[in-house]
Amino acid sequence: QELRPKSLDIKQEELGDMVEKEMASTSEAIEDAVRRIEEMMSQARNESSGVKLEVNERILNSCTDLMKAIRLLVTTSTNLQKEIVESGRGAATTQEFYAKNSRWTEGLISASKAVGWGATQLVESADRVVLHTGKYEELIVCSHEIAASTAQLVAASKVKAEKSSRNLARLQECSRNVNEMAANVVASTKSGQEQIEEKDTMDFSGMSLIKLKKEEMETQVKVLELEKRLEGERVRLGELRKQHYVLAGGCDAAAEDEEARPAPAPRRGILKKPPIAQKP
Questions:
Q1: Taking every annotated instance into account, which residue ranges of this chain make up the domain I/LWEQ (predicted)?
Q2: What angle do the packed helices 166-202 and 50-88 form, to 10 degrees?
Q3: Which of 8, 120, 132, 130 is closest to 67 using CA atoms?
């Protein structure tokens, strides 16, 4: 008992309450995330239009689908935990079961916190992207974090669950669905980023004649600079290849010299027609 690791500032009797509180807190965070995404959707429709509106709607819809998948995952995980406790505690109370399996309980709490934190960060990143104050890469990173924390939660639940448990099968299916929805967020984010950057680069509708002429001259300068740089890199590539061939040839010759040197084989010349035998 003395060598057993203790929870940080948490008595083992309180672990059971912590599990329930964290799962409830995670569910509440996800519900709040769904509400915030709906608010962002209506705000985007009022403040943006055209390509930007299309991109924002696609990203926010994929985030909504991901939140729904996470909500179902947390619900299924809660049901599986109740099943685990009921089947494993015997005559003990729920609190005693969690205290007896304190390391597993702490892992469960940590995984639940990670899922809720990932959902909150995703919504904040989506909000910044819609307001054009954040980076698209933040959404991609948050999606990867959610997939990782989901795997952590499934692994923590799977340790104590029966292999034939229906709730475990449902949880694994929910985990696959979360991963798929997270991949959809990444895909919609990348395509939206490309679409926005292409539009911003090629939109000349608001420019005056003088501004257009100036942009044209600056672009010509960039083209000439890039062509010069490209030519220099081609020359460099050619010199690198020449040196590579020289070194490769030298290594091959040295390797041949180091090998055992048998009697030199006769040099093969062009086969000549043998002379005709002279009659005596």
A1: 7-248
A2: 160
A3: 120
Alpha-carbon dihedral sign for residues 105, 110, 114, 117: positive
What's the rounded Cα separation, in Å, for the pair 163 and 175?
A: 16
Q: Are 117 and 109 in contact (CB under 8 A)?
A: no
Q: Domain residue spans in the chain? A: 14-196
Whether 158 contacts 76, CB under 8 Å: no
C-alpha dist (Å) from residue 277 to 239, 274, 280: 58, 9, 9
Domain 14-196: give its CATH code: 1.20.1410.10
| Prediction pTM value | 0.63
For residue 265, is pLDDT > 80?
A: no
Query: What distances in angstroms separate CA 36 from CA 39, 72, 135, 238, 248, one per listed residue?
Result: 5, 18, 19, 56, 62
pLDDT tens for residues 193-214? 887 776 655 556 667 888 888 8
> Distance (Å, rounded) from C-alpha 236 to C-alpha 242?
10
Return the pLDDT at 162.
Answer: 84
The set of residues, in sequence order, having a beta carbon less than 8 Å from that of 31 and lying 6+ positions away, is 71
For 101, residues 6+ apart whose C-beta sits below 8 A from its C-beta are 88, 160
Query: For residue 268, what are its two tokens?
Result: 């093969």
What share of the chain in percent tops pLDDT 90?
Answer: 11
Distance CA 48, CA 54 (A): 9
- The pLDDT tens digits for 139-189 are 888 899 888 888 888 888 888 888 888 888 998 999 999 999 999 989 988
Q: 103 and 3 in contact (C-beta within 8 Å)?
A: no
Nearest to 80 by CA among 156, 16, 178, 179: 156
Q: How far apart are CA 185 and CA 66, in angstroms?
A: 8
